[in-house]
């Protein structure tokens, strides 16, 4: 995470937009504000932003549509901020590619904690003193590089991953052929800011299967263990 993270905020409520901006700027971030999705693509071109905060109820193109479109074209982390607290809205936001969500009204400190957590997950790990030049997991031809946070397929193609998806795959690689409950996966990937929302893990599992499995509907690698959790069914080695 850079010393001064650049945040792009899309929020049509001027008062809320101002409050979020002031709070984040007072905590060392720079904020660019938009009231609608218009002009968003131009802003994202060039990768000048570290994070997108996106309201769902926007005039014109709604936040769900924007989230899906941005995720298809960019790897930027996305946090949804919305007054829609129903589970179905949270699930849909995650399915569209969001990394996290915050329900209005929210505590500013909670929003800041979630932003920092998402930025940490998206940041390539620096090479600490004494670590090996390369630290990767290998399984079934796949390579998961922990330093660059890149995932490379058996055919040598880099597969784009959100921060949350990468952390979930990392957790499985650390615990191959071991059943992990939803609570364990939440603690390993999101930490204490995640809350008790277990369905978020189910959505991330589905997204991960779409990227890794030959047949996501009949997964061979990331298997569901009924009434228990999920398991990476593959031998894993380090390189």
UniProtKB/TrEMBL annotation:
Q: Look up the record and report any one GO term of the cellular component aspect.
A: protein-DNA complex
Compartments in which it is found: Cytoplasm
Q: Does the keyword Zinc-finger apply?
A: no
Under InterPro entries, the record lists: CheY-like_superfamily, OmpR/PhoB-type_DNA-bd, Sig_transdc_resp-reg_C-effctor, Sig_transdc_resp-reg_receiver, WalR-like, WH-like_DNA-bd_sf
* Originating organism: Methylocystis parvus
Q: Does the keyword Cytoplasm apply?
A: yes
User: What protein name does the entry list?
Assistant: Regulatory protein VirG
SUPFAM superfamilies from the UniProt entry: C-terminal effector domain of the bipartite response regulators, CheY-like
List UniProt keywords, sorted A-Z: Activator, Cytoplasm, DNA-binding, Phosphoprotein, Transcription, Transcription regulation, Two-component regulatory system
Q: Which residues carry this modification: 4-aspartylphosphate?
A: 55
Q: What's any GO biological process attached to this entry?
A: regulation of DNA-templated transcription
Sample GO molecular function, one term: transcription cis-regulatory region binding
């Amino acid at each position: 995470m850079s010393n001064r993270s650049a945040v792009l905020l899309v929020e049509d409520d001027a008062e809320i937009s101002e409050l979020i901006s002031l709070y984040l700027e007072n905590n060392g971030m720079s904020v660019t504000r938009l009231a609608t999705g218009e002009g968003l693509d131009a802003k994202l071109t060039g990768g000048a932003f570290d994070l997108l905060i996106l309201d769902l109820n926007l005039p014109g193109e709604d936040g769900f549509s924007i989230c899906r479109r941005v995720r298809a074209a960019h790897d930027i982390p996305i946090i949804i901020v919305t007054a829609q607290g129903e589970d179905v809205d949270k699930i849909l936001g995650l399915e569209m590619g969001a990394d996290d969500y915050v329900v209005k009204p929210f505590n500013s400190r909670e929003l800041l904690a979630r932003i920092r957590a998402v930025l940490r997950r998206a940041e390539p790990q620096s090479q600490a003193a004494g670590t090996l030049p390369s630290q990767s997991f290998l399984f079934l031809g796949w390579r998961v590089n922990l330093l660059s946070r890149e995932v490379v397929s058996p055919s040598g193609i880099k597969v784009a991953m959100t921060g949350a998806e990468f952390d979930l795959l990392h957790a499985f690689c650390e615990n191959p052929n071991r059943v992990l409950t939803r609570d364990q996966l939440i603690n390993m990937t999101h930490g204490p800011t995640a809350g008790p929302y277990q369905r978020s893990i189910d959505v991330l599992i589905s997204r991960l299967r779409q990227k890794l499995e030959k047949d996501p509907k009949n997964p061979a690698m990331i298997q569901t263990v009924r009434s228990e959790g999920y398991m990476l069914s593959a031998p894993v080695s380090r390189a």
